[in-house]
Amino acid sequence: MTIKKVALIGANGTLGPSILHALLSADGFTITVLSRASSKSTYPASVRVASISDNPPDKELVDTLRGQDALVVAFTGSISDLQIRLADAAAQAGVKRFIPADFGSCDSSSPLALDLVPLYRTKQNVRQHLQQLASRSNLSWTSLVCGHFFDYGLKSGLLQFDVKKRQVQIFDGGDIKWSATTLDTIGTAVMRILQKEDETKNRMLYIQSFCTTQNEVLRSLEKITGQKWHVEHVKSEEYINEVKREQKGDLYSAEATEKLVSVVGIIGANWEGKDDFANTLLGLDGEDLDQVIRKTIDQ
Known about the structure:
Number of strands: 13
Order of helices and strands: EHEEHEHEHHEEHEEEHEEHEHHH
Strand order of the largest sheet: 3-2-1-4-5-6-11
Strand content: 15-25%
Mean pLDDT: 95
Radius of gyration: 19 Å
Shape: globular
Structural class: alpha/beta
Number of helices: 11
Oligomer: single chain
C-alpha cells in the first residue's frame, strides 16, 4: 500500500518544521499535524490540524489516527511513554508506518550510548516495542539515526563550539570522524523513507550530511570568521568522568544528558561503515561543510 496520508506530531519543535516542510514540498502527501489543544502554533492552510487533548486517552489517539498511513514523531525522544501509546494506537487504527523520535545525536543501538546516556535506553525500549508490534500487526517502523543536528548543534553549543566567544573544546585531539546532518536533510530523509515504503520497512537507517572532525569544523570556522579561535583540548574520558562527578551519578538530568550526548555524538558516531548506511538508498548527496557553516552562522 502506498503511503499517502501522513500524520506528524511535534511539528513545532526543533526538527518538526523541517520534516513538515519536506513533506509539503513532495507530491502526493496529505499532511495532518497532531496538535495539543493548548497549543498556539499555526500551520499552512494546506495542512490539516487535528487537535488532541493535552493528556489524550488511548481511544482519542486511535480515533485521531484512523485513516492515516504513517505517523512521524518529532518531539523529544525522552517522552517514551507517549511514543509507546502512540505506537499502540497506530497499530489499532491501521496505520502502516511509524517513524519514532530516534533521530540524533547518537546511535541508540550503540553499547557506548546505551551505557552512558539513559535517553538512548529509552529510545531502544521504544524501538523494541515497535519490533514487537510489527510481529503481530500490520504496523511497520523505520528508525532514522542522523548524528548531531549539525546546524542546530553549531548554534546551540552542542558541538562544543561557542560561535559568539570564538572558542571550542576539542575532544581527543580533534581528528575523530563523526557523522552529522542538517535539519533540512533530516526532513528530506523522512520524506524519502515514506516514498520508499518497501525498502525502508522495519529498518534502522543511518544518514549524514557529511562525516567530519572537530578540527575540520574549526578550520572552516576560522576561515569563514577570519579569526583565530581559542582552543581547549580535553580528553573525552576525563570529560565524561567530570560530568558523572558534577551530577553525582544522576545521568538522567537534562544537563548531564546534553553533555554526554555532545561527547558521544563526536567520539562514537561515524556511520559510514554501517551496513544500513542509507544515503544512497534515500538519494542524499551530502552537503558542503563550508557552505553549511557559513549559512548557519549568518542566520
